[in-house]
Amino acid sequence: METVKIILLCVGAGILYGILHDQVTARVCVEYFTIGHPPVFDTESPTLLAFGWGVLATWWVGLFLGILMALASRVGTLPKYTAAHLIRPIAGLLVVMGCASLLAGIAGYFMADTGRVWLNEPLRLQLSREKELAFIADLWAHCTAYGVAAVGGIGLCFRVPFSRWRMSRAAQAHPHAPVATAADGQ
User: Fold this and answer.
1) Distances in Å between the alpha carbon of 118 and those of 25, 103, 108, 146, 160?
2) Torsion of CA 46, 50, 51, 54, to 10 degrees
3) Tell me, what's the pLDDT at 171?
4) Number of Cβ within a 10 Å radius of residue 40
């Protein structure tokens, strides 16, 4: 059951991040979703597009990382991590993703504004200059979120077994000491 909780935590965290991220980027440039994505949702509402794409584009990332995280947390004879042990590390990753996405979006905007990056045709022809800059900002923010999620998620999958191993070594070194939990080391 704890394995399922870990997977659901990761899927839920991914979806929550996706919806919140898209609520911002849909307001920066709704065309990123209406022109830059396939017409899955028959609306131009930034709010509805953000909810739809926030779920559609992130649930599978959360599932993939959730499975890896469950394996890293539960497999083997080392002390087991629970879903509760993973809340802080996952929340930290989401904060890093948000900050990195914001910085990347700003960088993309200024790179486009100075002519260092641009959209190719025919997409470029469908947008005003102002919308092209905003579109590139959204594009850079989204690509960065995926990149940080991948690197950070895999990093957590390596960190968790190492933390479990340290807990095991500490318990062996001090068998009569109170047993520390994973949450104590987070």
Assistant:
1) 18, 18, 10, 21, 40
2) 170
3) 86
4) 10
pLDDT higher than threshold 80 for residue 179: no
For 133-142, the pLDDT digits (tens) are: 999 999 999 9
Which range marks the domain in which residue 64 is found?
Answer: 2-185
Q: How far is CA 7 from CA 11, 12, 143, in A?
A: 6, 9, 23
Q: How many residues does the chain have?
A: 186
Q: Are 115 and 133 in contact (CB under 8 A)?
A: no
8-state DSSP, 43: -
Q: Residue 9: count other Cβ atoms within 10 Å of its Cβ.
A: 20
**Residue 9, Cα to own-chain centre: how many angstroms?**
13
How many domains are there within the chain? 1
**What pLDDT score does 172 carry?**
87
Q: What is the pTM of this model?
A: 0.90
Task: Read off the pLDDT of each residue in 120-135 and give the average, rounded to a whole number.
Answer: 96
CA angle 169, 175, 178 (to 5 degrees): 95
